[in-house]
């Protein structure tokens, strides 16, 4: 009787172990379902959700650093056609995106509209100098007018340049270069980012995710339109993805992320390159692909972005994006800093550049469960074009079209400690606790099942052999 009780007890133990292991296994889909459901509710852009509160106004400081390219040999360039020698001066740092979204309006088609106000506050403690620092750079008005004035009007431009004692280069303060100054040649305000303060980006219409969480934060319309009108091509004029501040939850690292940037007037993609640990939180690390700005001969998808055949060497030049069509005709070309991933010809025409992935690449660190971007660095370079001219005196010695770097910027933000602790408490810790419970149940259940099953088998064999006392 005693051996039967022992055997029955072991069998019961094995059954209990199996049940615990099965329960641990059941918790995997059940737990994932609970997590997915909770995240989906909090990721919706609706008043009262976690996503909405962070979406209206970011609590994490966003900074934009500028490095201005100072030309060291302006006289030699104008008089002898020498290659410009540049050196970067910076950073000059501003806090941006500190203003909450305005005119927030919910629509019946599960989208929400808003305006994104622009503002920049100078941060002297994070800068190399003051806004009043002087820098010698390309004359923005001369370079701009050279492209925007028809060739038949170049004699007038040459007269205006001489009358105002101007040249291909000028010395201005950092503040003037970035935010604007009254230029006597064109008799209007000129500046790389003029106008900025007091202006708005948008209207944006984005999906709330209320009816379909896989569409949350995706842009439906920008400035009232579902497509751009800059490129005269259905592919290049598509508005894809979000604004990069967040993405639909439950990321698949095998799929690229898409986002639209009004700064460069197009949508771009980012590819998963690995995982990183940010303040104890696992992140998916995404970077812009090398082919993003490649020449059409390398990436045929970029053919519709090629506009100026002379400057781009019949569209064989890679690494730059001509955005003049969305900047009022100004000859502005966007690239990665120091022409990173660009054609060698770009750097052959300018001396003093040294591109590197560490300092000049753009990346995003996105939390894969929620889709929230926790850290990013958007790095862009603004270049302007000038070329030879028989009519404009200051361009007589210029031998070929040149894309001259004027400034590069690094717009960046990183998760702060307070937000990281809150996120870990609300999301990460719960996931880890659930994971610990699952592993514990499966481990104890498996060990108990194996131990009791083996012991029951041994007892059974001894009983059969008559060795049980």
What does this structure look like?
With 469 residues, this protein is an alpha+beta fold. It has two domains: 2-40 and 435-464; 60-415, no CATH class. It is 29% helix and 27% strand. The chain contains nine helices and 19 strands. The protein has helices at 2-43, 50-56, 74-80, 140-148, 154-163, 174-179, 344-348, 357-360, 417-464; strands spanning 62-71, 86-96, 102-106, 111-117, 120-122, 134-138, 169-173, 181-183, 188-190, 200-207, 219-222, 257-261, 266-278, 281-287, 320-322, 332-335, 363-366, 373-386, 402-414. Strands 1, 2, 5, 12, 13, 14, 15, 16, 17, 18 and 19 form an eleven-stranded antiparallel β-sheet that branches. Strands 3-4-10-11 form a four-stranded antiparallel β-sheet, with no helix packed on it. The chain has a two-stranded antiparallel sheet with strand order 6-7. α1 runs antiparallel to α9 (417-464). It is elongated, with a radius of gyration of 30 Å. The chain starts with a helix and ends in a 5-residue tail after the last helix. Mean pLDDT is 86; it is low at 20-25.
Short description:
With 469 residues, this protein is α+β, with helices and mostly antiparallel strands.
Topology:
Blueprint: H1 2-43, H2 50-56, E1 62-71, H3 74-80, E2 86-96, E3 102-106, E4 111-117, E5 120-122, E6 134-138, H4 140-148, H5 154-163, E7 169-173, H6 174-179, E8 181-183, E9 188-190, E10 200-207, E11 219-222, E12 257-261, E13 266-278, E14 281-287, E15 320-322, E16 332-335, H7 344-348, H8 357-360, E17 363-366, E18 373-386, E19 402-414, H9 417-464
Antiparallel strand pairs: 1-2, 1-19, 2-5, 3-4, 4-10, 6-7, 8-9, 10-11, 12-13, 13-14, 14-17, 15-16, 16-18, 17-18, 18-19
Helix pairs in contact: 1-9
């Amino acid at each position: 009787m005693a051996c039967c009780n022992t055997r029955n007890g072991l069998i019961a133990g094995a059954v209990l172990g199996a049940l615990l292991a099965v329960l641990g296994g059941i918790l995997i889909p059940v737990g994932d379902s609970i997590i997915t459901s909770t995240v989906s509710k909090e990721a919706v852009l609706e008043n009262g959700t976690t996503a909405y509160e962070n979406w209206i106004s970011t609590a994490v400081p966003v900074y934009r650093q500028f490095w201005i390219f100072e030309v060291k040999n302006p006289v030699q360039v104008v008089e002898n056609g020498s290659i410009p020698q540049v050196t970067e001066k910076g950073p000059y740092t501003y806090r941006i995106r500190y203003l909450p979204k305005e005119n927030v309006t919910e629509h019946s088609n599960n989208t929400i509209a808003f305006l994104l106000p622009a503002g920049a506050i100078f941060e002297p403690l994070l800068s190399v100098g003051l806004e009043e620092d002087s820098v010698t750079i390309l004359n923005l008005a001369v370079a701009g007018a050279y492209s925007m004035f028809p060739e038949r009007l170049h004699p007038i431009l040459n007269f205006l340049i001489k009358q105002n004692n101007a040249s291909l280069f000028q010395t201005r303060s950092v503040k003037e270069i970035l935010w604007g100054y009254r230029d006597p040649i064109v008799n209007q305000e000129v500046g790389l980012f003029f106008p900025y303060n007091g202006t708005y980006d948008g209207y944006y219409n984005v999906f709330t995710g209320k009816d379909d969480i896989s569409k949350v934060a995706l842009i439906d319309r920008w400035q009232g339109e579902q497509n751009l009108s800059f490129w005269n091509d259905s592919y290049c004029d598509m508005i894809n993805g979000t604004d990069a501040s967040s993405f639909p939850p439950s990321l698949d690292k095998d799929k690229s992320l898409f986002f639209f940037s009004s700064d460069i007037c197009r949508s771009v993609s980012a590819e998963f390159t690995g995982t990183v640990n940010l303040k104890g939180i696992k992140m998916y690390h995404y970077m812009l692909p090398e082919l993003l700005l490649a020449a059409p001969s390398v990436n045929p998808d970029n053919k519709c972005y090629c506009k100026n055949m002379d400057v781009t060497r019949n569209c064989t030049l890679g690494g730059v994006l001509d955005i003049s069509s969305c900047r009022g005709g100004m000859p502005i070309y966007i690239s990665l800093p120091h022409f990173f991933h660009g054609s060698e010809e770009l750097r052959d025409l300018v001396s003093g550049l040294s591109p590197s992935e560490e300092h000049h690449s753009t990346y995003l660190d996105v939390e894969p469960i929620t889709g929230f971007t926790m850290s990013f660095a958007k790095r862009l370079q603004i270049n302007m074009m000038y070329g030879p001219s028989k009519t404009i005196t200051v361009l007589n010695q210029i031998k070929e079209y040149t894309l001259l770097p004027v400034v590069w910027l690094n717009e960046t933000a990183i998760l702060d400690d307070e937000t990281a602790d809150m996120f870990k408490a609300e999301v990460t810790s719960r996931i880890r606790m659930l994971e610990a419970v699952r592993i514990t149940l499966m481990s104890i259940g498996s060990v108990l099942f194996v131990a009791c099953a083996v012991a029951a088998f041994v007892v059974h064999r001894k009983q059969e052999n008559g060795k049980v006392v």
